[in-house]
Amino acid sequence: MFECETCTDSFWSNDDCVAHMDDFDHWPECETCNKQFRTQHAADQHMDDTDHWAPCFECETCNKEFCTQQAANQHMNDVGHWAPTVPCETCEKKFHTQQAANQHMNDVGHWAPTIPCKTCTRKFHTQQAANQHMYDTDHWLHLKCMTCTKEFHTQQAVNQHMNDIACCKNGL
């Protein structure tokens, strides 16, 4: 059996197949220069060699392909197939509107933390959580008294120490 290269028709002889392909212009063509070939394999090889593959524009949500971006856009407008673009601040989900993203973040607590730690790069959702993090004594910056080298967690505490302690006032 001989099969047409562009439709599902089959023929008992190669001559009949070629006649059909001639009659119905069923010869495989290059996607960009319209050169015709005897087989689809030859057309594909030509397009590989010359980079003559036609551009393809895909729908953002289904598997349909279009020859122009305008046609793809028209399809996505007509059937509402635009991919969501508004991201959640903490997970990979995306939404069609900021309102939908906000609703998701409210529902599952996915708001990105905004309160920074004073000594590292971590961020927290609440000031209370940031404060709790800072109360870990190993986390604070260790500031030292210039005179006695006692360590403190804040510059204010160092200053207070230097004003209150006799060793610092007397330079001991």
UniProtKB/TrEMBL annotation:
Family matches, as Gene3D superfamilies: Classic Zinc Finger
Keyword Zinc: yes
Native species: Xylona heveae (strain CBS 132557 / TC161)
A matching Pfam family: zf-C2H2
Domain C2H2-type: 57-81
GO MF term set: zinc ion binding
Classification via InterPro entries: Znf_C2H2_sf, Znf_C2H2_type
Descriptive protein name: C2H2-type domain-containing protein
Entries under SUPFAM superfamilies matching the protein: beta-beta-alpha zinc fingers
Keywords on record: Metal-binding, Repeat, Zinc, Zinc-finger
